[in-house]
Give the backbone structure.
Amino acid sequence: MLKILAISAALAISLAGPVAAQDDDAPEPRNTRGLPGHLHAIDDMLRGGLLNDPTDLNWEHYGLGRDLVVDESYPGGGAALRIAMGPATEVYAGGVNIPLLARVNRGEQLTIGFFARTIESSASNGNGRVSVRFQINEPPYAGYGDTVLEIGREWGFYEVTSEAERPIRRNGIVALQFGLQEQVVEIGQAIVVTGTRSVFD
């Protein structure tokens, strides 16, 4: 069974750099309604409202191979999921679902940021391709923000932002889909927030 990645609140935000420092414009402590108590400290350090558990890599997956890699040198907590996708097919043929822990209202700005790098790729430039979308994880799987990111060979922090075109009352996820090409990609810590266009804005 995949282990849960435990990251302290301070470590989870450590790569925010100067943004994490306190200043006159720093937000007052507040927490996303419905967010579990053990995530309040992380929520307080972000300008947006936290919507997921950044300390957890135990995401639902389908159509691909998945292994947990633990390495202290990895950014954002020292662990990542190594995703192995077979030959290219439909984009949604293989993916992981990052659960949202609170409701989303129509018109809110949603943003996900995550660490990633490509290990192997069938693309001529050697890069991976990951499709990202915010959606309801039940038929007809309504969603928005569909964006394809090109993932380089070195670790990077990738972000996708979208205005919520409809509310998400339950079963909300951010879907990361890998079916566009044969590839091996590592996905590290992920943070989903509302109310800002960048996780560390």
Q: What stands out?
A: The longest helix spans residues 40-45. The longest strand covers residues 109-121. Residues 1-29 have pLDDT under 50 and may be disordered. Residues 58-194 form a domain with the Jelly Rolls fold (CATH 2.60.120.260).
